[in-house]
Amino acid sequence: MSELSVKHLLGIKYLNEKDIQLIFETADHFKEVINRSIKKVPSLRDITIANIFFENSTRTKLSFELAEKRLSADVINFSAGQSSVKKGETLIDTVNNILSMKVDMVVMRHPNPGAGIFLSKHVNASIVNAGDGAHEHPTQALLDSYSIREKLGDVAGKNVVIVGDILHSRVALSNIFALKLQGANVKVCGPKTLLPKHVESLGVEVETDLRKALNWCDVANMLRIQNERLDISYFPTTREYTQQFGVNRTLLESLNKEIVIMHPGPINRGVEITSDVADSNQSIILNQVENGVAIRMAVIYLLASKIK
Amino acid sequence: MSQKVLLSEKEINIILHRLACQLLENHLDFSNTVLIGIQPRGTFVAERLTKILKEEYKVKHIDLGFLDITFYRDDFRRGDKTLEATATSINFLVEDKNVVLIDDVLYTGRSINAALTALQSFGRPKDVELLTLIDRRFSRHLPIQPNYRGRQVDAINNEKVKVMWKENDGKDVIYLINK
């Protein structure tokens, strides 16, 4: 019998390799459950979970909510747009008010890096980070690695390139931690302006030539250009970005092997990847979404079992 | 800690054959019957019975499934440890079928209760029966009794019944262990 080494899921940085394996093995069972005609299990019938989103989200929020409901937890949803946060309430006050209603677990997305860690030190509930600014997005990295494991059998020893805006991406950071922990080789690729300084210190290599990177890799994880986070111009035009760092069918067919294409969504079709690539057999983008529910069920189940 | 042999390999074999015959008597060709072994240890009993029925009693086809009940248990968050799941593999619907749930030891009845809940995810069976190799009769928490039992045991609560199988533990034997 094993259990997670942590009480909260704040980032991949705080997990060890065994935790990741346990999450994956548990997710295997939940994947079987969500493919049944009756997709629900009663495990968390006495647990209440609050989904608190201070930042927009469609996929992650739906995926978490579905995962919670499939586990029979009671769910309340909260979006900052319609709340007292606008009236000046602090984060701790907001969350403590929600917890007074006997909530056991909080799933939170917040624009500020470290918001989850801060909260975990001040409130008495299990916290799941659903994205904190440009810091971490642990469940996305877990489902990405899980999808690689499903497609290629294992993550260890695989070559993975993360392409795009590494500087502002919490998906990139969590993915780097998760992939390195499982023994994959990681390269990051993008315009120099969007690569953080000293990124090599995380144990990754930098490549600015997309074709070289693709020829090296088994998997390419194409990140979205997050226009909402680009406060200044990091590249001259979207068109120029696409020419240098966008993946299209012609480019894929000119490579010396068939690689797996991933994308955390939402896709800017025609910017980081073209439609014929996104919808091709090489793309596992929709598998990632399906696996997202199983991974989040596993994370919530394993954390909830530590709530006494 | 002391342990004594409750059933030897030979006795287990005789009992398994008797249980197979009892199943055969009630279900004949197994055309509308499915056997479901409860994970993790009821699966060994279910596999053995299926093997005997097919090889020695020439039943042509038996639907055999394995059911994991972890996510349906009533003691989630009540123990010290995380409940770890095993695989479910039921590749058929149980709708309108006669289901025989199979486990090694019937103790409090809570596992069977969880199995009955879990079974609902696979359809509405015509009826459900229970087969257990060992029935600890004085320790039930719920009104659950087996339809087929291998051996009834009057074990007290600090005693443990340990069932071992060749394919998993190296030999067929059942011990009664006094903790």
UniProtKB/TrEMBL annotation, chain A:
GO terms for biological process: 'de novo' pyrimidine nucleobase biosynthetic process; 'de novo' UMP biosynthetic process; amino acid metabolic process. Residues 157-302 form the Aspartate/ornithine carbamoyltransferase Asp/Orn-binding domain. Belongs to the aspartate/ornithine carbamoyltransferase superfamily. ATCase family. Its EC number is 2.1.3.2. The lineage of its organism: Bacteria, Pseudomonadati, Bacteroidota, Flavobacteriia, Flavobacteriales. The gene is pyrB. Gene3D superfamilies: Aspartate/ornithine carbamoyltransferase (3.40.50.1370). Heterododecamer (2C3:3R2) of six catalytic PyrB chains organized as two trimers (C3), and six regulatory PyrI chains organized as three dimers (R2). L-aspartate binds at K87, R170, R224. Catalyzes the condensation of carbamoyl phosphate and aspartate to form carbamoyl aspartate and inorganic phosphate, the committed step in the de novo pyrimidine nucleotide biosynthesis pathway. Coiled coil: none annotated. Pathway: Pyrimidine metabolism; UMP biosynthesis via de novo pathway; (S)-dihydroorotate from bicarbonate: step 2/3. This is Aspartate carbamoyltransferase. Residues 7-150 form the Aspartate/ornithine carbamoyltransferase carbamoyl-P binding domain. It catalyses: carbamoyl phosphate + L-aspartate = N-carbamoyl-L-aspartate + phosphate + H(+). Carbamoyl phosphate binds at R59, T60, R109, H137, Q140, G265, P266.
UniProtKB/TrEMBL annotation, chain B:
The keyword Nucleus does not apply. InterPro entries: PRTase-like, PRTase_dom, PyrR_bifunctional. It comes from the Bacteria. SUPFAM superfamilies: PRTase-like. Residues 5-161 form the Phosphoribosyltransferase domain. Its EC number is 2.4.2.9. Gene3D superfamilies: 3.40.50.2020. Pfam families: Pribosyltran. Keywords: Glycosyltransferase, Transferase. CDD domains: PRTases_typeI (cd06223). One of its GO terms (molecular function) is uracil phosphoribosyltransferase activity. PANTHER family: BIFUNCTIONAL PROTEIN PYRR. This is Bifunctional pyr operon transcriptional regulator/uracil phosphoribosyltransferase PyrR. It comes from Maribacter algarum.
